[in-house]
Design a protein that fits this description.
Radius of gyration: 31 Å
Strand content: under 5%
Shape: elongated
Number of strands: 0
Number of helices: 5
Largest sheet: none
Order of helices and strands: HHHHH
Length: 116
């Protein structure tokens, strides 16, 4: 499609109509910016320094350092690098017999509003 529009100097709409193709099939792929190396390295450094921080907090730290970065872009880079924050360890649960159990309603004496 790019060849036809460049060689003949026609619009994409006209070229698609002549070639009997839908226009949405002829869109160019989005280009990723080439300036991702420096913020990626800064993000990797912060993620290794602060293991459990997620993309929001790392983005805030990058903003504090002076980087101009979008949180969605930082989330995508973090996911692509495989740098998910470490999850907190599960707390040990106390067994049921050691917990304080509230006595059931059957074990309590009946209550009356009459005071009898």
């Amino acid at each position: 499609m790019l060849h036809v529009t460049a060689e003949l100097g026609v619009s994409q709409r006209l070229a698609c109509r002549v070639l009997d193709q839908h226009r949405f099939t002829q869109r160019e792929a989005p280009r990723r910016p080439d300036d991702e190396a420096a913020p990626t390295q800064a993000m990797i450094d912060l993620a290794t320094q602060y293991g459990r921080y997620g993309y929001r907090r790392i983005t805030a730290l990058l903003h504090a350092e002076g980087w101009a970065c979008n949180h969605r872009r930082m989330e995508r880079i973090l996911r692509a690098e495989g740098l998910k924050g470490a999850r907190a360890a599960a707390k040990a649960r106390t067994p049921v017999d050691e917990r304080r159990l509230v006595p059931s309603a059957a074990a309590r004496p009946p209550q009356s509003c009459l005071g009898v």
